Amino acid sequence: MAENPAAGHVRDLKASPLDLNLHGPDEPAEDSENQNLWPRSLARKWMAMLFLGTCLLYCARMTMPVCAVSMAATFHWSKIDSGLVLGGFFWGYCFTQILGGHASDKVGGERVLFISAASWAMITAGTPVLAHLGFHTLALMTVARILMGLLQGVFFPSLASLCSQRVVEAERGFLMSTMHSGTHLGTLLAGGMGSVMLDRNGWESMFYCTGFLAGLWAVTVWYYLLRGDVTMKQMKKRSHIQPSLSSKRWLYLFRKPPVWAMVFAHMCICSTSYTLLSWLPTYFKESFPHATPWVYNVVPWLIAIPSALGGGFVSDFLITRGYGVATVRKIMQFGAMGLSSMFILPLSGAVPFTTAVVFISAAVGLSTFTGGGVAVNVQDLTPSCAGALYGFMNMMGALMGLVMVSFSGYLIEVTLSWAKVFSIITLVNVTGLGIFLIFGDSQRVDLQDNSQIIVV
Q1: Rg (CA), the chain
Q2: Which of 6, 23, 164, 409 is the most exposed place for a label (fewest CB within 10 A)?
Q3: 11 phi, psi to nearest 5 deg
């Protein structure tokens, strides 16, 4: 229980301490906080739409990689040219993480998500048009991918901001896990669409179809969820009360061990996930050349969908049953980085194909538990600037992922062995997990003046 001596009110632990700075003496803290929460029926609509949006986000992101081989044949690209186009996305993706999260903290994640989705939907649908202009195709495709990364970079920070402002603490884990499961469904959808459409209708059809579906999602969100004066008033009110994220405030936050422990753990899980996503197809193709490709390309990501949903449900269930939030976050992160590493490390030795698929599927499935751990911990620690801080976490995770993916390729080239790669993945996971278990917490740290808060 927490007490505010100045106001003379006794508040429940679940009430947000930041509300002390956002309401007057005659306005109860709970009323101020609850005004921003979604009603149950609206929350369900938003959850369904955000799940579909995440699915389409990854479907659009994977469209270029799926079509890269066909496009390279059409425009006579070399491997270096294809790598330049595909790599452009990640450079753009890194630069808008913090900006997107900060904008969402100020004006509301709903608006940022809508504007960005409408924009990258148009770029996706317009990619074939740009490609067939007849001049500087490689440069235009690279710029298009950079723009795609810039626009999609705001999605997950906006989602984190939205979750921290609109969803109660006990339901955030399931929401974030549901969104992460949409990424796996989007990856599978892009692969399935590519298998059918590339041969029948050409690579252009993939971009047109994905862009149309994403545009339809944006229009639906606007028409059914964002229109109306009520939403506008809520956005203006929240923009007025959100504190600014100055350099002094950044320094204040990063002096807190739970914050940098969370950031470091997120960097580690992101980098290992990027490495697995990038190199697993090559591992299976080289180690098991006669295996059926769809098995190792589909099964692990198919397992990840129910695993992410189940992890989110378990996370919220434990919190509602009275377990400490910090304890639950650490349990989920142990599953994501600790248990998953137990399945990755044996791959350093010789294993049969079936065992490799089972172990990889288990590792990928368990890694989705981070949706109830580090990925949602930012909303526990810094709800007033969750979007901006999550953007910073994602940016650092993407940069570390690029380094680790490249370093893994170097190790494979030099050692001609996968043992080093799986060992490094395990080492990075265990290191990040250890830091989070020791220094991680869920106590709110985004208040510089704690003199008014007394924990009893």
Answers
A1: 22
A2: 6
A3: -120, 150
